[in-house]
Design brief:
The protein folds into 2 domains: 151 residues, 60s Ribosomal Protein L30, Chain: A (2-Layer Sandwich); 32 residues, 2-Layer Sandwich (Wheat Germ Agglutinin (Isolectin 2), domain 1), CATH 3.30.60. 39% of the residues lie in helices and 19% in strands. It has 8 helices and 9 strands. Strands 2-1-3-4-5 form a 5-stranded mixed sheet. Strands 6-7 form a two-stranded antiparallel ribbon. The longest helix has 18 residues. The N and C termini lie far apart (66 Å). 31% of the residues are buried. The N terminus is likely disordered. It binds zinc ion (2 copies). The site of one zinc ion has 8 residues, from helix 8.
């Protein structure tokens, strides 16, 4: 029974992910499996329409369409953040309990998926099928983790805004720092990811 529910959740979320995408690709399926595993590991029902489940994704791309389809977490809802390490992994946090788990595919799952699906399918489609079939324990490594930053500080300033005393732009959600008593946005404080080419 449990297995059937899990399979149907995978299928439903895969279909929802594919609807946002040109087609269902292997990484979307991995994202769906990671998202479902996150809910199960933290004891949270999915998909969510509240902000209790917060995800830190370690890459962007197709995998996140699958994660979003399974969990309901999005950048727009501020429940999905990207920490771009270039790894297909997600840390899921229950913001009420601060319990957190990091979920990543196990080494060798690509080959396992292809061998499960048999020789009839090209590798790409074998992965799409295989990633839906592999039991969660064999597909994913799920590790309890503790965050190394203050989650309350990250979440505690929702909705605030101040003007940066240097560029004059609004700074949202408490991301400003105070320099000489004035609010300064991180971009003006130094080390911005861009430089102006105007004038
Ligand atoms: Zn894709
Ligand atoms: Zn500024």
């Amino acid at each position: 029974m449990t297995t059937r529910v899990l399979e149907s959740s995978v299928a439903v979320a895969c279909a929802a992910s594919a609807a946002q995408h040109e087609r269902l690709c292997p990484r979307q399926v991995l994202g769906v499996r990671i998202g479902i595993a996150a809910g199960q590991a933290l004891g949270l029902t999915l998909p969510r329409d509240d902000k209790r489940l917060l995800l830190f994704a370690e890459t962007d791309g197709c995998v996140l369409d699958g994660v979003t389809a399974a969990t309901g977490c999005t950048v727009g809802h501020r429940t999905l953040r990207i920490v771009d390490y270039g790894r297909v992994a997600v840390t899921a946090v229950d913001v009420e309990t601060e319990h957190a788990v990091r979920i990543a595919p196990r080494a060798g799952v690509r080959e396992l998926a292809i061998s499960l699906a048999g020789d009839a399918l090209p590798r790409y489609y074998a992965q799409v099928e295989g990633y839906q079939q592999i039991p969660a324990h064999d597909l994913l490594r799920i590790e309890p983790v503790a965050l190394t930053f203050d989650l309350a500080a990250l979440l505690g300033h929702r909705g605030t805004r101040v003007d940066c005393t240097r560029c004059g732009e609004e700074v949202l959600n408490g991301r400003e720092v105070y320099v000489g008593g004035g609010a300064v946005c991180p971009g003006c404080q130094g080390g911005a990811y861009y430089r102006s080419c105007a004038g």
